[in-house]
């Protein structure tokens, strides 16, 4: 593509705070991460947002027409609006004009657009969205997947999630031998519903991962697991609950610490510690989830994402590119690639 820098297509119209916060996060990433950003969306709105931000470098705008609204059904919306921002952004990756896509818009539309335009990786039946969560150990996180791409799953889907998650954990998060767990209601192999029992048997027999058994809800953030797999219905509920707990914790600290003079002095002394707490529990610090299993790098961010979260989403995209996540997942499978147009 003529440049050593990673080129990231940004869906500038996706999200509650688009395009202003999306543009602000993209500009920061362009400056601090040494990446090229392509802002996809309504040119006049993007130019207005750029005019509100100080920057000394050129930014490429790729025009699009409309966006997929949250109330729209993903597939029908994508077909009615072929030039919507998420469609155009995915086409940039398909055409090799960009290396990755970042979107804070309709997550279902982002996944469907990725499947329609990029297709699945070889050997992958369903893509999964992976979210990185903090644990009680300061220097350790856990990758939870799926957190929303597939509300209904088969055992082989969860097995593929485990393999993809293990690869991501190893090469991007730096875990030497990721410990994989299956989310369940008990530690015993025979616990859970039919899906859990059958998946447990498959994971035990898979020599491509280090499966250590079932993970109960209380174990998710214990630090005993590096990757935990579940269906997207449960995963999405867990993710949003974890985000809410983090927000509640930060709000309680803001309200309780400054009480009185001693509280104000204590808050000032504790400011470095409080900043570290925020970095560990604030979902904005993680940027979003990587859509694993499609033939392109796609980061799906929270709909309420503001500039810091978009910056971190772009950082995640760059890390996935730099560590060749797609190539490493593909090397684990040798089946023919699924046709790009097959979306159920």
UniProtKB/TrEMBL annotation:
Keyword annotations from UniProtKB, A to Z: Acyltransferase, Cytoplasm, Lipid biosynthesis, Lipid metabolism, Phospholipid biosynthesis, Phospholipid metabolism, Transferase
Record-listed E.C. numbers: 2.3.1.274
GO molecular function: phosphate:acyl-[acyl carrier protein] acyltransferase activity
Pfam families: FA_synthesis
Subcellular localization: Cytoplasm
InterPro entries the UniProt entry points to: FA_synthesis (IPR003664), Phospholipid_synth_PlsX-like (IPR012281)
Catalytic reaction annotation: a fatty acyl-[ACP] + phosphate = an acyl phosphate + holo-[ACP]
Record pathway: Lipid metabolism; phospholipid metabolism
Keyword set includes Transferase: yes
Gene3D superfamilies the record matches: Isopropylmalate Dehydrogenase (3.40.718.10)
The keyword Membrane is annotated on this UniProt entry: no
Enzyme class: transferase
Purpose of the protein: Catalyzes the reversible formation of acyl-phosphate (acyl-PO(4)) from acyl-[acyl-carrier-protein] (acyl-ACP). This enzyme utilizes acyl-ACP as fatty acyl donor, but not acyl-CoA.
Family: Belongs to the PlsX family.
Self-association and partners: Homodimer. Probably interacts with PlsY.
Protein name (database record): Phosphate acyltransferase
Organism: Floridaenema evergladense BLCC-F167
